[in-house]
Amino acid sequence: MIHRRTALNHLLSEQPLAAKPLEGKVALVTGASSGIGAATASALGAAGAAVVAHYRQNADGARAATAALRKSRKLLVRADFAYPRDVDELWFRSVAWRRRVDVLVNNAAIVEPTPWTLDDAGWTAQWKRQLDINVVAPVTLVRRALQHFRQRGAGGVIITLSSVVAHRGPAEPSLVAYAASKSAIANVTRTLAYHHAKDGILGYVIAPGLVATPASDAAAERAGGYEALLTGLPLQEPVPAGEVADLVVFLANGTARHLTGAILDVNGAAYVR
Asked: The domain that contains 252 carries what CATH number?
């Protein structure tokens, strides 16, 4: 599913190069080796962007996600978000590549159970790990992007992948730390959008529901199978990662200026606010 071209990608591939909406833009996608991140890196490339594809371990996945791009239009960078130095190196290598970044897609995150029954040391360690990787690291990138955009004076776009669990809470109580982290990064993005619209900096939050990703596969295993997760979903299917990627492409071109600060729900009406 990750590598299947979406209808938008197919349409863009048939257009002349100059007609591609993100031609000349540079996009940094974190967590680009699988799931939503891989689909997004592929879709942004199909839309004309030069893509920095971040990965932590799965270099093959990042290569596959950017396989359709010429070598000159892609840069693969490894970084472990548990280490602040890696996060800064990712940003500075991204900027140095083409002397600019126009779009930051904050997608990378970990989903790890944090049972309330953990001992004190385990509870503290799990919360710290998920907040470090899911909040501190992406907020560091947001800060770097803000500084870069303001210095260039050309504005920019920040797109944050949050989750439906940030609003309704997780179905699994042990995912409380993950849900809290997704709520935090959404709040940061909206705060930036509010205070820096005047600088031409646009911030959007995408909150997907159940998407067919490795994290969802793990959740399905804990729940006893995908059928258990699909129960109650109006469309009776997970959100295709390509649909989320298409939305990222739409937002990345910066024309939806008055959507800045919005949280865009992509969950097939499974959760309606």
From this structure: 3.40.50.720
